[in-house]
Amino acid sequence: MLYYLFDFLDKRFDFPGAGVFQYISFRASLAIITSLVISMVFGKRIINYLRKKQVGETVRDLGLEGQIQKQGTPTMGGLIILGAILIPTLLFAKLHNVYIILMICSTIWLGLIGFLDDYIKVFKKDKQGLKGTFKVIGQVGLGIIVGCTLYFNDSVVIKEKVRNNDEVIIDGHVFEGNVDSKNLPKYSSQHKSTITTIPFIKDNEFDYASVLKFLGDNYRDWAWLIFIPMVILIITAVSNGANMTDGLDGLATGTSAIIGATLGVFAYVSGNTVFANYLNIMYIPNSGELVIYIGAFVGACVGFMWYNSYPAQVFMGDTGSLALGGIIAVFALAIRKELLIPILCGIFLVENLSVMMQVGYFKYQKKRKGIEFARANRLFKMAPLHHHYQKSGFHEAKIVTRFWIVGVMLAILTFVTLKLR
What we know:
Layout: H1 2-13, H2 24-52, H3 78-92, H4 98-122, H5 132-152, E1 168-170, E2 173-175, E3 195-197, E4 205-207, H6 224-245, H7 251-270, H8 273-279, H9 290-308, H10 317-334, H11 341-344, H12 346-369, H13 371-376, H14 385-391, H15 396-416
Antiparallel strand pairs: 1-2, 3-4
Helix pairs in contact: 2-3, 2-9, 3-4, 3-9, 3-10, 4-5, 4-10, 5-6, 6-10, 6-12, 7-9, 7-10, 7-15
């Protein structure tokens, strides 16, 4: 909103300093500062309100150190994160940008699913919360909306770099390979495409449509059959991965902040022709505006850690954790870096896999040697993985810090994929 105000003042009255709002870096900085202020200043008031309303966490005794002390800690603190993301975005971003609209809708959508789950747990006293089936339906629904928007919306386009031996149509003119690049634009005209970034490959682009080449010359018309299910899978997996990771004070929040900062860099270089050309990556017009959103996201996570770090004064609940994972997934899809998620979101992936392996191994041993043997010979002492380390005697704060360190290492490895091909 403030962007449009200052844009009007700059163009209509040549208001001194108003033009600075045209710079993404300036607005992103304001978004970070504002989200930090909202989450740290107003966060305390929300925590006090939740405590007054007795919106406390119900903890099952699993024999973990320090677990019982968490009983009654205010939950649903994800409302702080959501507010600290949405308010700066509404203030400083271009609200007509399709990517910003998509991120706002995704944030609200997943926030509502998580809020409903927490509401049932806290106020209806149902420990199971929202049934898993309904959660998945909500995630799939969002996946369909995001997939259809990215596939069909005319504003979601890319510009491909002109290479030798390529025939490229630029503004209606056909250019063929081995032409002096100095006399050519660096990028083709913008167009719809289903290509995405794939790590560790020289020409690091993968086209979802290429999977359907066996259908004949019109195979691209059916690319949505591959693309949309892939979007649904990614959003569901990452959202649930963040939800699994939210088991220790500050773990999911800190990990999400690291991932968000990394995605912010990718969004900035993908939306900037100079950096995209230097790094030899696809240029995505208008995607740079996402830096404002992800700035608010990182600021919200860091600000929330003021109260969520050990010992936590508030838990985010599913209101926050489901939203954080979904936001990361949708953002990565928007900037076409979703195939980097297994590396960048390695913490989420391992947490998810640990649960799947634990359940699968238990069922296998139960069928093979009986339930008593299966209980006595679990693959992990407890799943998700962070609880395994708790059972092994590591202090909660040490586990969280070490997971953060691993998250930073994975973020650096993700950056390296830009040049290591």
